[in-house]
Design brief:
By secondary structure, the protein is α+β, with helices and mostly antiparallel strands. Helix content is 33%, strand content 27%. The strands form two sheets. Strands 4-3-6-7 form a four-stranded antiparallel sheet, with no helix packed on it. A three-stranded antiparallel sheet has the order 1-2-5.
């Protein structure tokens, strides 16, 4: 009987140790994969040069400096001041991209104005020595909508940027974060 108990205890210990060993091996493999991914991320250089139209809107190539909303009657004007770096300027000079932009309205505005986006604005950026630039997007609302609601900084207005083929390329979330107070 004692032998049987000893054999059972040995079996339990051996089985438990082998499971711990398997678990340790799986955990080591996961750590190796994570380490490999971290090394690859470190080896992958940050986008230092604009190579495609998508790269234009990645920092440090494009940065919004200021966002402002002006309203008059039932018209609204979104003024976006931005700066591009020399690499973006060089890309624009060589490739002459055509872009489309609009403002995506939050649900609160959609419900009261029945508009989900502003008018779409065609932008053909030009290269120049001046890297500080400005774009203006105009929109018109029905007279029954109070356009002053759009000046409320709590609304999550978004800038959508589309490629020439009108495929969505980039979104700047909450433009009100860029307002100078």
């Amino acid at each position: 009987m004692k032998r049987l108990v000893v054999i059972i205890i040995l079996l339990i210990v051996v089985t438990g140790c082998s499971q711990n060993k398997e678990h340790a091996e799986v955990q080591n493999q996961q750590e190796e994969v994570t380490t490999e991914q971290a090394q690859k991320a470190e080896e992958t250089p940050a986008v230092s040069k604009v190579l495609s139209v998508e790269d234009l809107f990645i920092q440090p190539h494009f940065m919004i400096k200021d966002f402002n909303v002006k309203t008059v009657n039932n018209n609204v004007q979104y003024i976006i001041k931005y700066v591009i770096d020399p690499s973006a300027n060089s890309y624009i000079e060589k490739h002459h991209p055509v872009l489309y932009l609009n403002i995506l309205y939050p649900d609160e505005i959609l419900k009261s104005s029945h508009k989900s986006v502003s008018k779409t604005f065609k932008l053909t950026p030009t290269a120049s020595d001046v890297l500080d630039k400005q774009m203006i997007i105009n929109d018109t609302f029905q007279p029954d909508f109070n356009v002053n609601k759009l000046t409320d900084p709590s609304h999550q207005l978004q800038l959508q940027i589309f490629k020439e083929n009108k495929q969505l390329m980039h979104v700047f979330e909450n433009l009100n974060d860029y307002r100078r107070h």
